[in-house]
Protein backbone atom coordinates (compact mmCIF):
# COMPACT_ATOMS: atom_id res chain seq x y z
CA UNK A 1 0.00 0.00 0.00
CA UNK A 2 1.19 3.49 -0.85
CA UNK A 3 0.19 6.04 1.80
CA UNK A 4 0.46 9.84 1.63
CA UNK A 5 0.66 11.60 4.99
CA UNK A 6 0.31 15.27 5.82
CA UNK A 7 -0.68 17.49 8.77
CA UNK A 8 -1.35 21.10 9.71
CA UNK A 9 1.20 21.42 12.53
CA UNK A 10 4.13 21.45 10.11
CA UNK A 11 6.78 19.13 8.73
CA UNK A 12 8.72 18.99 12.02
CA UNK A 13 5.73 18.38 14.32
CA UNK A 14 5.96 15.39 16.70
CA UNK A 15 2.44 14.29 15.73
CA UNK A 16 3.63 13.72 12.17
CA UNK A 17 6.23 11.26 13.48
CA UNK A 18 3.43 9.41 15.27
CA UNK A 19 1.42 9.35 12.03
CA UNK A 20 4.41 8.04 10.08
CA UNK A 21 4.69 5.15 12.53
CA UNK A 22 0.95 4.43 12.20
CA UNK A 23 1.17 4.55 8.40
CA UNK A 24 4.23 2.28 8.40
CA UNK A 25 2.32 -0.33 10.40
CA UNK A 26 -0.63 -0.13 7.99
CA UNK A 27 1.48 -0.22 4.80
CA UNK A 28 3.53 -3.24 5.83
CA UNK A 29 7.01 -4.24 4.74
CA UNK A 30 6.31 -3.79 1.03
CA UNK A 31 4.45 -0.50 1.40
CA UNK A 32 5.57 3.07 0.85
CA UNK A 33 5.04 6.12 3.07
CA UNK A 34 5.25 9.50 1.36
CA UNK A 35 5.21 12.72 3.38
CA UNK A 36 4.10 16.06 1.95
CA UNK A 37 3.52 18.43 4.84
CA UNK A 38 3.44 22.20 5.35
CA UNK A 39 6.82 23.87 5.73
CA UNK A 40 5.33 25.98 8.54
CA UNK A 41 2.41 25.51 10.91
CA UNK A 42 -0.97 25.84 9.21
CA UNK A 43 -3.36 25.25 12.13
CA UNK A 44 -6.84 26.69 11.65
CA UNK A 45 -6.68 27.07 7.87
CA UNK A 46 -9.51 24.53 7.33
CA UNK A 47 -9.78 23.53 3.65
CA UNK A 48 -7.87 26.58 2.39
CA UNK A 49 -5.96 26.20 -0.88
CA UNK A 50 -3.34 28.55 -2.31
CA UNK A 51 -5.44 29.48 -5.31
CA UNK A 52 -3.97 32.94 -6.00
CA UNK A 53 -0.24 32.27 -5.57
CA UNK A 54 2.16 29.40 -6.27
CA UNK A 55 3.28 26.89 -3.65
CA UNK A 56 7.00 26.18 -3.31
CA UNK A 57 7.84 22.54 -2.62
CA UNK A 58 11.19 21.13 -1.50
CA UNK A 59 12.45 17.57 -1.15
CA UNK A 60 13.95 17.16 2.32
CA UNK A 61 14.82 13.49 2.05
CA UNK A 62 13.64 10.21 0.57
CA UNK A 63 9.84 10.37 0.18
CA UNK A 64 9.77 13.49 2.38
CA UNK A 65 8.65 16.88 1.04
CA UNK A 66 7.75 20.25 2.55
CA UNK A 67 5.36 22.62 0.78
CA UNK A 68 4.79 26.28 1.60
CA UNK A 69 1.05 25.88 1.72
CA UNK A 70 -1.94 24.41 3.53
CA UNK A 71 -2.64 20.74 4.21
CA UNK A 72 -5.03 20.71 1.24
CA UNK A 73 -2.23 22.17 -0.90
CA UNK A 74 0.04 19.38 0.32
CA UNK A 75 -2.48 16.71 -0.65
CA UNK A 76 -2.85 18.27 -4.08
CA UNK A 77 0.94 18.40 -4.42
CA UNK A 78 1.28 14.80 -3.31
CA UNK A 79 -1.36 13.45 -5.68
CA UNK A 80 -0.64 15.55 -8.77
CA UNK A 81 3.10 16.20 -8.51
CA UNK A 82 5.10 14.04 -6.11
CA UNK A 83 3.07 10.89 -6.78
CA UNK A 84 1.63 11.82 -10.15
CA UNK A 85 2.84 8.60 -11.77
CA UNK A 86 1.75 6.34 -8.90
CA UNK A 87 -1.09 7.90 -6.87
CA UNK A 88 -1.48 6.97 -3.21
CA UNK A 89 -4.00 4.39 -2.03
CA UNK A 90 -4.74 6.28 1.19
CA UNK A 91 -4.25 9.75 2.66
CA UNK A 92 -3.75 10.22 6.40
CA UNK A 93 -3.68 13.66 8.01
CA UNK A 94 -2.39 14.39 11.52
CA UNK A 95 -1.81 13.42 14.21
CA UNK A 96 -3.02 16.86 15.22
CA UNK A 97 -1.77 18.45 18.44
CA UNK A 98 -5.15 18.98 20.08
CA UNK A 99 -8.68 17.84 19.35
CA UNK A 100 -10.70 18.45 16.21
CA UNK A 101 -14.01 17.49 17.81
CA UNK A 102 -17.21 19.56 17.79
CA UNK A 103 -16.90 23.09 16.34
CA UNK A 104 -13.11 22.75 16.11
CA UNK A 105 -13.67 20.49 13.10
CA UNK A 106 -14.90 23.47 11.06
CA UNK A 107 -11.56 25.26 11.43
CA UNK A 108 -9.25 22.28 11.16
CA UNK A 109 -6.48 22.15 8.60
CA UNK A 110 -6.06 18.50 9.55
CA UNK A 111 -9.59 17.80 8.33
CA UNK A 112 -8.89 19.98 5.29
CA UNK A 113 -6.22 17.51 4.19
CA UNK A 114 -8.56 14.52 4.56
CA UNK A 115 -11.38 16.41 2.84
CA UNK A 116 -9.16 17.16 -0.16
CA UNK A 117 -8.31 13.47 -0.42
CA UNK A 118 -12.04 12.68 -0.55
CA UNK A 119 -12.63 15.34 -3.20
CA UNK A 120 -9.85 13.70 -5.22
CA UNK A 121 -11.58 10.33 -4.92
CA UNK A 122 -9.18 8.82 -2.40
CA UNK A 123 -9.80 7.48 1.12
CA UNK A 124 -8.92 10.18 3.64
CA UNK A 125 -8.68 9.96 7.42
CA UNK A 126 -7.89 12.81 9.82
CA UNK A 127 -6.44 11.89 13.22
CA UNK A 128 -6.22 14.21 16.22
CA UNK A 129 -5.10 13.83 19.83
CA UNK A 130 -7.25 15.50 22.48
CA UNK A 131 -5.17 17.00 25.32
CA UNK A 132 -6.17 17.26 28.97
CA UNK A 133 -4.78 16.93 32.50
CA UNK A 134 -4.37 13.15 32.18
CA UNK A 135 -2.13 13.17 29.10
CA UNK A 136 -0.72 16.65 28.50
CA UNK A 137 2.28 16.06 30.78
CA UNK A 138 3.07 12.50 29.68
CA UNK A 139 6.48 11.86 28.14
CA UNK A 140 4.49 11.20 24.96
CA UNK A 141 1.19 13.13 25.04
CA UNK A 142 0.27 11.37 21.77
CA UNK A 143 0.40 8.01 23.55
CA UNK A 144 -3.27 7.14 22.92
CA UNK A 145 -3.00 7.88 19.21
CA UNK A 146 0.28 5.99 18.91
CA UNK A 147 -1.14 2.89 20.60
CA UNK A 148 -4.56 2.79 18.95
CA UNK A 149 -4.13 4.66 15.66
CA UNK A 150 -3.27 1.73 13.41
CA UNK A 151 -6.20 -0.31 14.74
CA UNK A 152 -8.65 2.51 13.98
CA UNK A 153 -7.30 2.97 10.45
CA UNK A 154 -7.46 -0.78 9.76
CA UNK A 155 -11.08 -0.95 10.92
CA UNK A 156 -12.05 1.97 8.70
CA UNK A 157 -10.31 0.44 5.70
CA UNK A 158 -12.10 -2.85 6.34
CA UNK A 159 -15.54 -1.59 7.33
CA UNK A 160 -15.83 2.11 6.51
CA UNK A 161 -18.18 3.50 3.90
CA UNK A 162 -16.41 5.70 1.38
CA UNK A 163 -19.21 6.81 -0.95
CA UNK A 164 -20.34 5.91 -4.43
CA UNK A 165 -19.44 7.42 -7.76
CA UNK A 166 -21.42 10.59 -8.42
CA UNK A 167 -21.67 11.67 -4.78
CA UNK A 168 -19.37 13.39 -2.33
CA UNK A 169 -17.01 10.79 -0.90
CA UNK A 170 -16.87 10.19 2.83
CA UNK A 171 -13.78 11.00 4.87
CA UNK A 172 -13.28 10.29 8.55
CA UNK A 173 -12.56 12.48 11.55
CA UNK A 174 -10.87 10.46 14.33
CA UNK A 175 -10.20 11.98 17.76
CA UNK A 176 -8.25 10.14 20.45
CA UNK A 177 -9.33 10.89 24.02
CA UNK A 178 -7.29 12.94 26.52
CA UNK A 179 -6.13 9.93 28.52
CA UNK A 180 -3.12 7.60 28.59
CA UNK A 181 -3.21 4.75 26.10
CA UNK A 182 -4.07 2.17 28.77
CA UNK A 183 -7.20 4.13 29.76
CA UNK A 184 -8.75 4.23 26.27
CA UNK A 185 -12.09 2.43 26.59
CA UNK A 186 -12.70 1.67 22.91
CA UNK A 187 -14.14 3.19 19.75
CA UNK A 188 -17.42 5.02 19.23
CA UNK A 189 -19.07 6.11 15.98
CA UNK A 190 -20.22 9.61 16.88
CA UNK A 191 -21.76 12.65 15.20
CA UNK A 192 -20.06 16.03 15.35
CA UNK A 193 -21.01 17.81 18.55
CA UNK A 194 -21.32 21.46 19.55
CA UNK A 195 -19.90 22.95 22.74
CA UNK A 196 -22.55 25.34 24.12
CA UNK A 197 -21.43 28.95 23.93
CA UNK A 198 -17.95 28.14 22.65
CA UNK A 199 -16.81 30.37 19.80
CA UNK A 200 -13.53 31.82 18.62
CA UNK A 201 -12.83 35.39 19.67
CA UNK A 202 -10.08 37.96 19.20
CA UNK A 203 -7.93 39.45 21.95
CA UNK A 204 -6.35 42.84 21.15
CA UNK A 205 -2.80 43.63 22.26
CA UNK A 206 -0.55 46.61 21.69
CA UNK A 207 3.10 45.99 20.79
CA UNK A 208 5.95 48.12 22.23
CA UNK A 209 6.02 49.91 18.87
CA UNK A 210 2.46 51.06 19.44
CA UNK A 211 1.02 48.87 16.71
CA UNK A 212 -2.20 47.03 17.50
CA UNK A 213 -2.49 43.28 16.98
CA UNK A 214 -5.29 40.76 17.40
CA UNK A 215 -4.80 37.24 18.72
CA UNK A 216 -7.46 34.66 17.88
CA UNK A 217 -8.52 32.67 20.94
CA UNK A 218 -10.60 29.52 21.14
CA UNK A 219 -13.02 28.56 23.90
CA UNK A 220 -13.07 25.90 26.61
CA UNK A 221 -12.40 22.56 24.91
CA UNK A 222 -13.60 20.51 27.86
CA UNK A 223 -17.23 21.61 27.90
CA UNK A 224 -19.61 18.73 27.33
CA UNK A 225 -21.38 18.34 24.02
CA UNK A 226 -24.59 16.34 23.49
CA UNK A 227 -24.45 12.78 24.84
CA UNK A 228 -22.98 10.40 22.28
CA UNK A 229 -21.41 13.15 20.15
CA UNK A 230 -17.68 13.32 19.42
CA UNK A 231 -16.31 15.52 22.21
CA UNK A 232 -18.63 13.88 24.76
CA UNK A 233 -17.35 10.37 24.06
CA UNK A 234 -13.75 11.67 23.92
CA UNK A 235 -14.09 13.10 27.43
CA UNK A 236 -15.50 9.73 28.54
CA UNK A 237 -12.31 8.02 27.33
CA UNK A 238 -13.40 6.75 23.91
CA UNK A 239 -11.92 7.30 20.45
CA UNK A 240 -14.55 9.07 18.34
CA UNK A 241 -14.93 8.21 14.66
CA UNK A 242 -17.10 10.61 12.64
CA UNK A 243 -17.93 10.10 8.96
CA UNK A 244 -18.01 13.42 7.07
CA UNK A 245 -18.60 14.77 3.59
CA UNK A 246 -17.69 17.99 1.81
CA UNK A 247 -21.43 18.54 1.32
CA UNK A 248 -22.52 21.56 3.35
CA UNK A 249 -26.19 21.26 2.42
CA UNK A 250 -28.58 21.29 5.39
CA UNK A 251 -30.68 18.48 3.92
CA UNK A 252 -33.14 18.54 6.81
CA UNK A 253 -34.04 22.16 5.96
CA UNK A 254 -34.60 21.59 2.24
CA UNK A 255 -38.24 20.32 2.26
CA UNK A 256 -39.62 23.21 4.33
CA UNK A 257 -37.59 25.74 2.35
CA UNK A 258 -38.85 24.27 -0.92
CA UNK A 259 -42.46 24.53 0.27
CA UNK A 260 -41.94 28.12 1.44
CA UNK A 261 -40.43 29.23 -1.87
CA UNK A 262 -43.21 27.89 -4.07
UniProtKB/TrEMBL annotation:
EC number, as in UniProt: 3.1.3.5
Annotated cofactor note: Binds 1 divalent metal cation per subunit.
Predominant location: cytoplasm
Annotated SUPFAM superfamilies: SurE-like (SSF64167)
Tagged with keyword Amino-acid biosynthesis: no
GO molecular function: 3'-nucleotidase activity; 5'-nucleotidase activity; exopolyphosphatase activity; metal ion binding; nucleotide binding
Catalytic activity: a ribonucleoside 5'-phosphate + H2O = a ribonucleoside + phosphate
UniProt: a divalent metal cation binding residues: 8-9, 43, 96
Record's keyword annotation contains RNA-binding: no
Domain Survival protein SurE-like phosphatase/nucleotidase residues, every copy: 3-194
Keywords, ordered alphabetically: Cytoplasm, Hydrolase, Metal-binding, Nucleotide-binding
GO cellular component terms, semicolon-separated: cytoplasm
Cofactor: a divalent metal cation
Compartmental location: Cytoplasm
Enzyme class: hydrolase
Protein purpose: Nucleotidase that shows phosphatase activity on nucleoside 5'-monophosphates.
Similarity section: Belongs to the SurE nucleotidase family.
Protein name (record): 5'-nucleotidase SurE
Amino acid sequence: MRILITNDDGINAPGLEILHAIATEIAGETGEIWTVAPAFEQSGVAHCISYTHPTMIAELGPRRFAAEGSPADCVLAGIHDVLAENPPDLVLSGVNRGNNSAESAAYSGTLGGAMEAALQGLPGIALSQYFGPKNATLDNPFEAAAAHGADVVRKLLDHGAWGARGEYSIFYNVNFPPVPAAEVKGLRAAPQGLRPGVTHKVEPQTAPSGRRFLWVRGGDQHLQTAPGSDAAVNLEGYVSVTPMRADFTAHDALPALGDALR
